[in-house]
Known about the structure:
alpha/beta; Rossmann fold; 2 domains; 18 helices; 14 strands; 45% helix; binds nicotinamide-adenine-dinucleotide; binds uridine-5'-diphosphate-glucuronic acid
Amino acid sequence: MKIKNICCIGAGYVGGPTMSVIAQHNPEIKVTVVDLNKERIDAWNDKNLNNLPIYEPGLIEVVSKARGRNLFFSNDIDGAIKESEMIFISVNTPTKTYGTGKGMAADLKYVELCARNIGKIAKSDKIVVEKSTLPVKTAESIQSILENAGSGVNFEILSNPEFLAEGTAMRDLAIPDRVLIGGNDKTEEGKKAIQALVDIYSSWVPKENILTTNVWSSELSKLTANAFLAQRISSINSLSELCERTGASIGEVSKAIGMDSRIGSKFLNASVGFGGSCFQKDILNLVYISRSLGLNEVAEYWNQVIVMNTHQRDRFAKNIIKNLYNTVSGKSIAIFGWAFKKDTNDSRESAAIYVADTLISEHAILNIYDPKVSSSQMIFDINYLNTRSEFENKKYLNIKSDPYKAVEGAHAVAILTEWDEFKTYNWKKIYQMMKKPAFIFDGRNILDKDHLEEIGFNYNSIG
Ligand code: NAD
Ligand code: UGA
């Protein structure tokens, strides 16, 4: 089966970069990325590539070559579905905020809407690929919706979860550790569909890195990968607290255990807590599925990863308050970093939001600087928590476009994202601009403790 046209529904952090790379390596295939959000599509089509809706190192270079050649961004969802033989669903699957499973289960309403629409529009056979992260057995529901809403055409469902991490998405897509394709290899149509997707990835991914499984293993592997990654962070963060009490150093412990090849050195950086749109959502989903199946011990085991992460964020904020003589009321605190990690403009579930919210509750005045997150996004993030009124929040938030402006008269600087530029700042100058004693709370352990203490700072790190 030769694919000539691909449609991807959802032009977000996954749909945009993933389809750009597929288009880059398959110039003979027309790839159309569609979205309900007109503003987002306009930004993807903006002549000025600096205005792309997401910031990701290396993205501009790939988009600039493929866009208009075989990569298109459009709001014409129905048109793109009609002309494509293969349709990726890459829409958001957030945690439910209402009804059964509220606060835990994945909200599949956007996925279901896509499936219903594909069923209604399709007049020829389609391969539908789940790119969004979905609970186990969702493919079954999609199949049922498509069959019931469809007009007799054949739909093959594949699961092809995405493993890219933001900030390194283009590298992760260019040289993925593996590409996972779940499908039904018990039927001829199923086998052909799997092969069609394997062929697309084979244009740049070595065959041995393309793994095919049954659909449910593929769906569960995605949730499991995120749960394992997040578990490592919560594990090291739990020990960072123990280090602070005992005088051991978490950096030294990480290094020592990471040199054991069975453990490995990656994902052992203690921090203010993991953020991002997926770790918490996917683990909550795993907990919900386990509980629904009566597997209470399994559910509790994974839930502890979230409990630990919330505790880590919380104790970081409380440590700032404790060190500033138990009151931050009316004191200026500079917040360096709002994104949930460096090299992205994404702030979803960022630890910075929760730390800032706790400090605002104690009436601290926050001067926030981030190199990539917009001020409107920061205000949205704080208001979204609904802790207090928008009017009230406004009184405590000052968003700065210059880091040196953020530290003027501040009592403390809190580092909440590991942006490289923070390491290169003139910390002597910053010290001079701050109130004394001048505190640094390094939630990412990126600054040079000895140098800062020599300048005169009271330096606090994690673990
Ligand atoms: P996102 O919010 O950035 O993008 C989703 C897009 O889908 C939005 O632009 C939204 O307008 C659009 N959309 C929603 N419903 C639609 C509909 N019915 N028709 C057309 N467009 C619609 O989300 P994301 O970060 O790209 O994540 C997408 C999925 O990929 C999620 O399931 C997520 O768990 C998974 N995932 C994300 C990452 C990541 O790093 N962000 C990595 C791997 C997997
Ligand atoms: C994560 C996974 O790494 C991806 O494989 C997955 O595809 C994606 O989730 C997803 O499903 O959405 P992402 O959240 O973009 O990717 O970024 P990570 O690099 O995993 O970082 C997540 C959070 O953990 C960040 O806040 C980061 O600062 C934090 N982190 C990471 C630590 O605190 N310590 C570490 O050692 C590593």
